[in-house]
């Protein structure tokens, strides 16, 4: 975990979406975390306190700039997020993967192997999968667009049903909201 020299206040909001509630957290209007409903939000908040050394407060107004973009995304009118983010991974490869995720176009996918090759790391498909699993800002850094070589969805920090929904939604289908 990264510890900062000066404790920083984290603000968060909880937003309802077709894939369940999302916790969105930011420091000074830089997004640092997006968590899905299947992750224990109390544990996420405790982790943010530990990671940044300061208090964590719910402030829906402070994150309106972000929730507006999430609403547009789920309405089908936004295809990429234009939000300031703070890359916090101490591992260079994880950071490289997480930043590069934003280059996968809306409605398209890459296999873990293709993504590794794009990073000039052929053979690092498992490492790409691990970096996607540790992605602190899913949706903004769209790890759901990375799938297995055979086209099956693979793992996702939300739920498999949420990943399936997001992929179908981005392809222009009208998927049913996930129930799990």
From TrEMBL:
Taxonomic lineage of the native organism: Bacteria, Bacillati, Actinomycetota, Actinomycetes, Micrococcales
UniProt source species: Enteractinococcus fodinae
UniProt KW keywords: DNA damage, Methyltransferase, Transferase
EC class (word): transferase
EC number: 2.1.1.63
Residue stretches making up the Methylguanine DNA methyltransferase ribonuclease-like domain: 10-86
Gene Ontology BP, a term: methylation
GO molecular function: methylated-DNA-[protein]-cysteine S-methyltransferase activity
Protein name as it appears in the record: Methylated-DNA-[protein]-cysteine S-methyltransferase
InterPro entries tied to this protein: MethylDNA_cys_MeTrfase_DNA-bd, MethylDNA_cys_MeTrfase_DNAb, MethylG_MeTrfase_N, MGMT_N_sf, WH-like_DNA-bd_sf
């Amino acid at each position: 975990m990264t510890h900062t020299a000066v404790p920083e206040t984290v603000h968060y909001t909880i937003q309802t979406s077709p894939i369940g509630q999302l916790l969105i957290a930011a420091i000074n209007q830089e997004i640092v975390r997006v968590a899905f409903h299947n992750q224990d939000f109390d544990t996420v908040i405790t982790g943010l306190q530990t990671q940044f050394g300061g208090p964590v407060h719910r402030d829906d107004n402070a994150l309106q700039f972000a929730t507006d973009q999430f609403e547009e995304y789920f309405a089908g009118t936004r295809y990429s997020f234009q939000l300031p983010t703070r890359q916090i991974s101490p591992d260079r490869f994880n950071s490289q993967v997480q930043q590069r995720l934003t280059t996968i176009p809306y409605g398209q996918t890459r296999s873990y192997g293709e993504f590794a090759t794009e990073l000039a790391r052929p053979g690092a498909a498992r490492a790409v999968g691990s970096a996607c699993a540790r992605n602190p800002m899913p949706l903004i850094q769209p790890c759901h667009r990375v799938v297995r070589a055979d086209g099956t969805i693979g793992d996702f920090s939300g739920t498999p049903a949420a990943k399936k929904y997001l992929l179908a939604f981005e392809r222009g289908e009208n998927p049913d909201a996930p129930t799990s």
